[in-house]
TrEMBL record:
Homotrimer. Interacts with the C5-epimerase GLCE. Signal peptide: none annotated. GO terms for molecular function: sulfotransferase activity. It is found in: Golgi apparatus membrane. This is Heparan sulfate 2-O-sulfotransferase 1.
Amino acid sequence: MLFLKFLHLKVFSMPERAIARHEVREIEQRHTMDGPRQDATLDEEEDMVIIYNRVPKTASTSFTNIAYDLCAKNKYHVLHINTTKNNPVMSLQDQVRFVKNITSWKEMKPGFYHGHVSYLDFAKFGVKKKPIYINVIRDPIERLVSYYYFLRFGDDYRPGLRRRKQGDKKTFDECVAEGGSDCAPEKLWLQIPFFCGHSSECWNVGSRWAMDQAKYNLVNEYFLVGVTEELEDFIMLLEAALPRFFRGATELYRTAPDTATPSHWHGPICGSKSISSLLVKVSTVCKDSHCLGKCSRNGLSAV
């Protein structure tokens, strides 16, 4: 195996969890009874499901576009996970539906699912064959700077879409100097919950439990996690390990134009005074966020 979890969420009782498990098992059993012969002949690769629970502004658009470009040639399905109000945390009911759909929707297998959603442990719902999780993370400050300007300028992928902060000319340096909310130190934490999971504690900035859970999941529950700064290496490894999906991905990445970063914008240098000031304010958060990246890099280096 290659090593490469915001909003308040109530704690669900054991009976609720048991009901969720029962519902998933029920649909799995019904699915088997409806067509045992067809399922029995389904090749393992044809039954494969990959979940890319993409972190915003980590080159996720560029990588997802590769999956879309390859799906017809490599004969798999790409499906977008679109949650209510783009909330990365799903309710228990939505978690059950999500697990049901992915487990039983054989017409969409092999399938590549992508969306801004936190890690979900399928085993808690009684699913025996779990999907393959992959992801990409980025230097937390670089990611925050990128997201700051994305809210103001968008990207070349959808240039006509009006962004929430469009028209705001304030630079990231000025935002830090003024203590603005869009560049607040707490926003460096955002990558942690995507690996930590659906517990409300995952969104508690600086939580040692959340950080430990995120690291555990990254090492034990993810097939491969890359880093934005070494995206080509990530794609090369995927092509070698999962050619059913990613055959031809490396060449496609090398020849594709970059549409994730607006061509008219160049971010501030990370050695600037504003960045230094931000680091002083967020020593704990930044240290933990970088630790997650180091954990991923160590995995990549070990391959």
